[in-house]
Amino acid sequence: MEVHLRFLVKKKITYSFLILVFFVFSFLVFNKALIKDKTYSPDFKNKKTSYLIDFSLPELYSSDKIRLSEVIDNKEFSLVNVWASWCVPCREENDLLKSLSSISSLQIIGVNYKDRKKNSIKFLNDYGNPFKYNLVDKDGTESINLGAYGVPETFLVNKNRKILIKIIGPINDDDVKQIREIING
Amino acid sequence: MMLNRLGRLLMVKKRFMVFLFLFFNFFGNCYSETEPYSKLENDIAKNLRCLICQGQSIYDSNSEFALSMRIYIKDQIDSGHSEDQIYNMLVKKYGQWIVYDPGYSKKTFLLWFIPILFFLLGGAIIYLRIYKSKKYEKFF
User: In this structure, what DSSP letter does residue A137 have?
Assistant: First the structure.
């Protein structure tokens, strides 16, 4: 009888130990998952190199086909901005883009995403035009080729089309500061 | 009399159910003519996560991103790319998050091996318990 009792106590201890281990394990897992930042953005610093893909699209005003690589080759740095007239954050970001367009070694190239020509031209007339070129992406496939999520989205690339910064969503003052720092070396 | 009637009603119902079953099995597999996407396109869209939506695949979503992605998938298929090539291209652009299949990598090996580990551990516990209980039966 005594042996039996001792066996039971031993069993109880092992069980409670296992349960404790289980709880500690799940606590650690959930704790780690909850602390981690949920907003997802792809890592660019971890990747060694990522280059902007090349494509040709018609220009907004002239409707001539323009090759992105040829345009980017003109200046030291280029800011490729995906925008649309129906996108409200693009209006807010427009002023910051205009302030950046005064930098001599930088050109701003717009990718007009899923938009009507009439509306885009009206947008540029109303809010000002920071773009040197505007490539029209009517069905949004070339923006997917770029790796863009939607509007607005901004890529800072150098002459070799290497992506230096990618900003998902409207750019803010901090982003502008960062862009200026990179351009000034 | 009542029972007879009920039985007949049930029979009719049964026949009707069988008919319905066959009907939906037969016609359910047909594609409607208005379906704008091919089966391959839909299959690929189901395996891709809509990155700007919450908990939806490209197949489920009607967002601008998903609609563009649909056209992109169609273009890639038309230009002769295989299903796996399309996934690889998109993973390169958007990262592993876009596909539902997490794949094997340093980051995901735990994901693949923990279930196997738990299975073996559970098996070991069950085995030991049965083995031990038999051992103690001899004692008492």
Answer: E
